[in-house]
Hints:
The complex is a heterodimer.
Chain A: E1 3-7, H1 14-25, E2 30-33, E3 45-48, H2 70-78, E4 82-86, H3 88-96, E5 102-104, E6 112-120, E7 136-143, E8 147-149, H4 152-160, E9 164-168, E10 179-183, E11 189-192, H5 210-217
Parallel strand pairs in A: 1-2, 1-3, 3-4, 4-11
Antiparallel strand pairs in A: 5-8, 6-7, 6-9, 9-10, 10-11
Chain B: E1 8-18, H1 25-36, E2 49-56, H2 61-72, E3 78-89
Antiparallel strand pairs in B: 1-2, 1-3
Amino acid sequence: MKSAVLVFxxxxxxxxxxxxxxxxxxxxxxxxxxxxxxxxxxxDIIAIPGGFSYxxxxxxxxxxxxxxxxxxxxxxxxxxxxxxxxxxxxxxLTEIGLLPGALMRNENIDFICKDVALSxxxxxxxxxxxxxxxxxxxxxxxxxxxxxxxxDDGLNRLEDNDQIAFRYAKNxxxxxxxxxxxxxxxxxxxxxxxxxxxxxxxxxxxxDGLRLFESLLS
Amino acid sequence: xxxxxKARSMKIRIFVTLKNGVLDPQGKAIHHALESLDFKGVNxxxxxxxxxxxxxxxxxxxxIEKMCEKLLANxxxxxxxxxxxxxxxxxxx
Lengths: 218, 93
């Protein structure tokens, strides 16, 4: 499986993402700088890592979503390449418009950094097939702007189309309908605030995130 | 003198505000802080952004709107208002 990790000024989970992908695929991911305009050929997965791209200026993910490389990412996503955005990566995907809605300041305005329980919303996608629907898993979060917003029609569409991948077992940040991660309509783009790449080794607090990466292989 | 002066420019102010019905945690925190300072009668607080642009004179309204739609505001959650200030020369002559 051929993978790429995008790197922006201010990304800080790019290395962890690369380690997770390499652990599962056995191949070193291509690290792709935001200023490039092309992606390597034949990619199976593009990962947009967490961090604080462009210092979260203007809005989290806003500047990164207009970076040079993004046109190529949109083209790849529309042609069926899998795209995973974690934390700042999720914010970037909503700012690009590959995923609906927006991520706003946490309801209690705290930066939240802890392990959280998630409920798996669906197990039919390339990202979630390794989980059971309604299963509870534990994955860490670390964010200030994770409060998912969409209007009621948009939220209903997500539910009707089975696009909600993960929900917080207990709402930590004010997210509409406890949403922690969503898929696009085709199921090949996933954005999530929790960090699966930080949960790939039981010696480091848990391995519930590993199955997400393993799902991609099967 | 103006023929050899710099191109004239204009100042644009863009107000970015959260749409009605979108929760504003920052506004809420500011509201609480005002109350804790004993200011009475503040019913609600909404926080937004003011962005000032200095653009070439003659920049079209539609270009400014595109700037707002493509970058300066996220129209999923935000509204924007454009205010044009009086034309001015960038350099005194």
